[in-house]
Amino acid sequence: PIPYYQSVCLSVGYMVKIKANFQPLVGRKPELVVEFCTGIGKDSDIAFHFRLYNSMVVMNSFQDGKWQEEKRVSSDNFVLGESFELRFLVLDNGYQVFVNNKSILIFVHCLPLQSVKMLKVSGDIVLTSVETL
Prior knowledge:
By secondary structure, the protein is mainly beta. Helices cover about 0% and strands about 55% of the residues. The protein has no helices and 12 strands. It has strands at about 5, 15-20, 30-35, 45-55, 55-65, 65, 70-75, 85-90, 95-100, 100-110, 120-125, 125-130. The model has no long low-confidence stretch (mean pLDDT about 90). GO terms for molecular function: carbohydrate binding. Pfam families: Gal-bind_lectin (PF00337). Keywords: Lectin. This is Galectin.
């Protein structure tokens, strides 16, 4: 079910692999959100917020009740109607993101890895699988 939550305990080398399909929507393009959070409450910090919509990837973190500086990158790696695999690899300096085995970006850590306790996946998708390695 969406939103999907999973407990995580991050360390360097940890990987999350998400396989999904976008749901077709009438009149608008679907979006996908993946967040690495300190908890599930509304006041929880978000170490890494990844949002895809309109061929744009938006990345940010939410700390002490405030969004930080947003980073954007264009991405044409997702094709409506086709399944995709999204991987997040934890590096010592950030999160490396892969789409269908192609590295598309690295987001620098804004919060300590030890503070991240929860993975949240939401949006206009049908999840096929979520694996942690």
